[in-house]
């Protein structure tokens, strides 16, 4: 049985132009245009020196508390990729610390998103790499396996496939399915432009929100004066 002990090295090439466009957008705008369904749940926090990042996913499934396959994924990652690790959400043992993450930084990994814990926070916050995780714990990991690389994983309640775009900032992490990425970024750019117009209107002392009154009226809200 190979399930739980397999590595698929082949994966789609990243669309550099699309990633560059996405990197200019707030992650919240990207999530909004996907009907607010693609954000990772569970309170992912930014721990690395890079506080915002967009890149293509290299997926890893790890046994909670064990980082053998995460180590191998760092060696296989292309420059600029985001390693997305399904660690089962376990916060009792850290899956990565400053030595391992320092190796990822030197190899050009853009970011790691870990559904689990990290450690050595003082060191990793100084590194030029994005680190998003559910929490921190000083306990170190085992290195026995099993695990998988390059297959579908669940991370923060989202399915992530190899080659999906991952966008992250201090708000959290969203998953952009690769097949829909171009349409999503088109829509997010328009959404961001509209929000800029709203910001300008607020700064100018206005912001007409007729939809609020219309929505309340449609629900039969009674206002007493």
TrEMBL record:
Which cofactors, if any, are listed as required?
A: a divalent metal cation; Mg(2+)
What parts of the sequence cross the membrane?
none
Q: Which PANTHER family match?
A: 4-HYDROXY-4-METHYL-2-OXOGLUTARATE ALDOLASE 3-RELATED (PTHR33254)
Q: Pfam families, from UniProt?
A: RraA-like (PF03737)
Q: Which domain of life is it from?
A: Bacteria
Amino acids binding Mg(2+):
120
**Organism of origin:** Roseomonas indoligenes
- What is this protein's record name? Putative 4-hydroxy-4-methyl-2-oxoglutarate aldolase
């Amino acid at each position: 049985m190979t399930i739980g002990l397999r590595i698929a090295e082949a994966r789609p090439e990243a669309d550099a132009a699309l990633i560059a466009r996405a990197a200019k957008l707030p992650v919240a705008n990207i999530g909004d245009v996907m009907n607010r369904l693609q954000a990772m749940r569970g309170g992912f926090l930014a721990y690395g020196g890079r506080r915002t990042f967009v890149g293509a996913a290299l997926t890893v499934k790890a046994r909670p508390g064990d980082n053998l396959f995460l180590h191998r994924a760092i060696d296989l990652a292309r420059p600029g990729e985001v390693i997305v690790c399904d660690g089962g959400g376990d916060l009792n043992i850290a899956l990565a610390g400053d030595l391992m993450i320092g190796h990822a930084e030197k190899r050009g990994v853009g970011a790691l998103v870990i559904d689990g814990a990290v450690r050595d926070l003082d060191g990793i916050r100084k590194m030029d790499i994005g680190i998003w995780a559910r929490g921190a714990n000083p306990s170190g990991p085992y290195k026995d396996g099993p695990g998988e690389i390059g297959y579908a994983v669940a991370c923060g309640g989202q399915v992530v496939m190899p080659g999906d775009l991952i966008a992250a900032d201090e708000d959290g992490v969203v998953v952009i399915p690769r097949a829909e990425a171009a349409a999503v970024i088109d829509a997010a750019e328009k959404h961001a432009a509209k929000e800029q117009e709203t910001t300008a209107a607020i700064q100018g002392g206005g912001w007409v929100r007729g939809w609020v009154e219309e929505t309340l009226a449609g629900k039969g809200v009674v206002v007493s004066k």
